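User: I'm curious what two different proteins look like when written out as structure tokens. Can you demonstrate?

Assistant: Sure. I'll show them one after the other, since each token string lines up with its own sequence. Here's the first protein:
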Amino acid sequence: MLADGLTGEDLAMIPEHWLTYPAPPASAHTALALLYVFFTAAALLGNGLVIFIFSTTKSLRTSSNLLILQLAILDFIMMAKAPIFIYNSAMRGFATGTLGCKIFSLMGAYSGIGASMTNACIAYDRHSTITRPLDGRLSKGKALLMIAFVWIYATPWALLPLFEVWGRFVPGTYLIELSNNREQAKKMNVESLRSNQVAGQQSAEIRIAKAALTVCFLFVASWTPYGVMSLIGAFGNQDLLTPGVTMIPAVTCKAVACIDPWVYAISHPKYRQELQRRMPWLQIDEPDDTASTATTNTVSAPPPATA
């Protein structure tokens, strides 16, 4: 059975629903471990690049980009906990025990809830910029206040189940993916990517709109399976929720953290320019807007007077 070999505190953490299912085949564990190795490498590399470029490039350290940097950090944390999942998969079960479950779930709670709230802040910033272009720009102090609020807001939702004050963290599906059995963090990856150049603003806005549409599609595609499973678990026939079926939303939700940084790479002009400058071997073809900006701002001198 799925919980064979577990005793004491570890067995007490397993929801009764999973105790009736047989252990999954070794091939399923191997496939999941390999898939998560790929996810982890893509997410840590991509988000690591975003964190490095945005934090070390002065022109990118704007108030709005602080929120994007925060989101990249949370996506990084989301997949930094994946080694626990991979180890459990390699050992074919609940190998990390109660401590591993709590660490995995704590990181997931902070990264999931934090990312959803960060996206709300980004949406507010984008709304203010569009509706009040003259005075709606986010100040750095306000951006830092929003970031602090996100962490303060996420803390009780992460710590209450950790200390079993309200709900608790439990293993799910193959006993390798762990979650809060009362509140599962949802991540709404809707990015707001803003160019800092006045010249070419219309072109930048079109690219931002395309990026937003892409990320909205990714959000719907990635979280719809989780939403369906949650509704079935709450109001439907729970017999439909087999370990194999419920691994689908776990995989699709993690995939978003891998894709997000690559969305930045194809949609943020100044980020692409900085990548092109620091890593020319990537062969990024992003035109430098310095010349066009200078041309736009040049005022021709009047012709000399003739006698």
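Here's a second, unrelated protein for contrast:
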Amino acid sequence: MDPRLLAGPATLMLGAVVVGIELLGLIESAPVLLFPVGVLALAAGTLLVGTSGTIRRQAA
């Protein structure tokens, strides 16, 4: 399996976990930039998942 196909879901999950931790306030000493980093990871994961069909077509 092409590792690029796993990058999207992994980044999406990482972003969701980071944003969830920040929104729930589970880590009181979390840096201020944690939320924007999580949002950027969600956006990047969404783009990677959206372009995974292109990668599949190129591999075929």
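A detail about the second structure: The longest helix spans residues 3-24.
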